[in-house]
Structure prediction request, 491 residues.
Amino acid sequence: MKKLYSKRSVLYSLEPIGKGTPYVESIISYITRLAFEHNLNVTTLLYQLVLPSIPGDKKLKSWRPVQTDYLIMSVGKTANNVISALESLTTRSDLIELTLLNWKSILKPSVVSKKKKWCARCIKEMGEKQEALYEPLIWQLEEINYCMIHSVKLNNICLGCKRELPHIRSKMVIGYCLYCGDFLGNHVIQSDHNIIPTKEKEIINVYSQLLVNSNPNKVPTPLFLFHLLEGMKAINPDISTIKFAEELLISKTTMYNYIHRKQLPNLIFWAKLSKFLDLTISELLDEPELNEKFITGILNIQCEPRKLNWVDKDSITKMGKDLENYLKADTVKSISEFAQEESLNLKKISYHFPELYGRAKEKSELIKKAKKEKYYKDLETEIRLFLRNGPSCLSEVYKRFNIHKKQFKKYFPDLHREIKINHQKNVFIQKKKIREKQVRELRGLIMHYHKLGIYPSINRIDQDLLSRGALRNRKLLDERIKIMKELDYDL
Prediction:
């Protein structure tokens, strides 16, 4: 009779949000929602239910996620064990799709950011539509800094209290700051520069494909690239490692290291490979040798014989004309960018046309200088826009805009001084407000005990103060003496 009944789960079999889309929720978001449904603290759920369910691993059972909470979303042993335990407790078999574990052979261990990131506009929209608040895994990836829906930078600091948020703490609520309790969708930064960099778009595109196919039929092995190149050579015998590297615009040494497992390929490489072969990631891994698009693309690669290191008169004349056109044109490209587009060799140009090359170099330097000035001018505008949302310290600005403190001080001396002075003023005001609040609280407690006929001793008051140990401060002690003298206590 027992076999007639299905097995009951220890925890609710909560349905993950966004499964099969680039915006699938992270496993930490799922754990936080699961804890809320059971009316438990997040750490209570982890320490008392999830970690004890991991079989055999004593070291992991004594692990405390508060210190290294991001590892649960990573692609290592910790994430694998936590997923296994959660699937056992919820009787679900799809929780691995909330991670990138199936792609760990092509990803670095540091794939996840150590602190929380979020898009304030997305959270605001979820709240306005009264949808369940959750945190997509794509926000927490180390290499991604933009929201692909709104084309804005992800927040990594609460604009209410100016603090970074961890992934896991005891009384966490999704969409709200752990420290000040502000709704994270309230602090939307208005910016006119809503353009995602090209490199970032490529990375987002690859990660999106990985997240959509987070439970693939096949996963790449460490020898995947080696076998892929062998398959390409079988279709087109003229292809070599050098030619393959040239087509993907990477060095032959890097390609050699990738193929022979001496170096792990980055996400930009996978983006280039996918674009070059005109295949999605799933198509690339599912026997590409049998794919017609793959075969056609490989056969179309022209493998020309290696050219001798000499230049004929016509080529020299063409180089001179191209260089003169560059000098006359009202362009914003550097000489190296122009040479790359026109397939020119700068060494040969400098040898045959030293004077023209010198003038082109000067023009290129002026263009670079103008670009640099424009970049720092736009960056200053963006920083000042960020500062309108409230006072901020220099370290927050460095982290927010990924700029070194020496670089910031060099290019924005006035802004550096302004932020420093404003922060000092803000700290002074905040300390003054805290002190006034403590004095009011102290006066209230002394008056309370005085009315009850109880002597307001230091120990008794200190136990009832919201900030324990505040009476160690000399100024507060003097304030206590002053208040008690007003009440005619003999001190």
Notes: DSSP finds 21 helices and two strands in the chain. The beta strands are 146-147, 152-153. Confidence is low (pLDDT under 50) at residues 304-308. Residues 16-214 form one domain.
